[in-house]
Design goal:
The chain has twelve helices and 22 strands. The chain is an alpha/beta fold. The strands form six sheets. The protein has a six-stranded mixed β-sheet. Helix 2 crosses helix 3, helix 4 packs across helix 10 and helix 5 packs across helix 8. It is globular and about 70 Å long.
Amino acid sequence: MPRLKIITEETQKEITFSGAPVLKDLLKQEGYFIDSPCGGNGKCGKCTVKLFDGISHSNNLQWEIKLACKTILTADTTVKLPEIFIENAFVETDIGTIQSKNCKFQYGAALDIGTTTIALKLFSKEGKAVAEAVSVNPQRSVSSDVMGRISAAVDGKLPLLNLQITDCINNLFENICNTAGIERKDIEKTVITGNTAMLYLLCGINPKSIAVAPFKADNLFGVEINSPVKAYLPPCINAFVGADLVCSVIASGMCESNKTALLCDIGTNGEIALWKNGRLYVTSAAAGPAFEGAEISCGCPCVDGAIDKVWFENQRIFTHTINNSPAVGICGSGLIDAVAAFLEQGYIDSDGISPSVLNLPSHGKPISITAEDIRALQLAKSAVCSAIETVLAATSVEFDEIEAFYLVGGFGNRLNLDSAVEIGLIPKALARKTKQMGNGALKGAAMILFDEGLKQKAIETALKAEHIQLGGNELFNQRFCENLRF
C-alpha cells in the first residue's frame, strides 16, 4: 500500500492509505485540521502544503506547493504542514467565577458553539472554573460562514456537519476530563449555546426552514438533548438571532436595568440587541467571515502566530502575534488595526483604495494586505455599523441616549476600539461607553447552568424580543452604501 509521511514542526508520522484519497481528507482522519474556508473548492488558497513525491529522510527536498483540498494521492508522498494547521485556536474563555445557587451537582459544563471557534468550560459545584478546552470549529472545512453550512446541510452534507461537531465536542469533553482528573459521568449537567444554525447542525436537524424565505425556524429549542452529551439548549429568538445572543443578554444584565443599552456580538453573523424602556429589540447582520480571518488573502483564525495587533510608531509599522509566535497569518483584530493604521498614515484613502499591496513586517510567513482584503473589511464593517444605525433609527434612539454599549464575543474583546472607530466599525459616540465583556454567550450559559431560574428568564428574553428586519429595509440599504467608505 502507498505511504504518506507527515512532517510538522515537531513530529513526523508515516501512514499507509488505499484508493485515491484527497490529501485534506486523509490528513483530517489523522487529526490534522486543515483550514479550508472555501469548503474545499480550491478558491481560498488557505490549505497550501509542501509536497514531495516519494518518501525521503533527507532535509534537502525539492518541495512543491500544493492545495491539500485538490491533491489526490496515488503513490508514496511526503507532506510538510505549516504550524497553523496543528495549533488550537485562541478563544476568549475568561468569565470569572459564577454565582452558585443551591447547586446539586459536583461538576457542570458550559459550551459555546461559534461559527469559527468552540469553547468548553468545566465548573465545580462552587462555580469555579476547573478546566477548559477550545477548538477551531471543524465545520470550517465545509464553509467559513453560516449560510454556506446551511446550504451544504440542505444539499446532503448534514450527516457530515453533524459528525464534525459531535466528534469535536466529544474530544473537548475528553480533554477537560483528563485535565480535571475526572470521568465523563462526573459531569452531571451541561448547557450548550450557539447561533440557531449551529444548534440545528448539532441536533442533526435539517435547516431547510432557515435556508429560504421567509426564514422561519421550525425549531427554536429551549430543550434537553441526550447526544453528544446530555445538555440543555437555551432558546433562540429566530432563524438568525440565536441562543448565543440570549445568553449574552443575560450575562450583561442589560434587561435588569433602567438604562438604555446596546449589545453587539461582532462576528460572521453580527447580532445586535437594544434595551429601551422595558422593550428588547434585536437584529442580525451578515457581516461575512472577514472578521474571523477567512476569505482574507493572509487571514487566519486566532491561533498562535496570528498577527493580532498592528501600529505605527515613529513612522515605522510594528506588529504583534498571539503568544509572540512566528507569523502565520493575520486575524480579524489585526486586520482592523492594520487598515486603521494605513488609513491614518494616508496609505489607504477614504474609498479604501491603496496604490499597492500593503506589506506587514513579520518574523515568519510574509504577510500582506490586498485591495480585495480591504474591500472585504469594508463590506463587513458597513454591515455591522449600518445595522446598529438602523436599529437606533427604527426605535427613535439617538447615540447620546445610549448609556451602556456591550461588546461581546472573543473578537469584540480583542478589538482595539480606536481602530474600530477609525475604520467606521463602531460609531465614535459609543466608544467611550463601551464595555468589552469577552465571551458573553459562554458566561450566560454558565449562569444558566448554576441557576435554574434563568432558564425561564432565557425563555422570557427570547419571547419578548422584537426583531427588526434588515432584508429589504430601505434605510439599511442606504446606510450600507454610505458606510462602505472609511
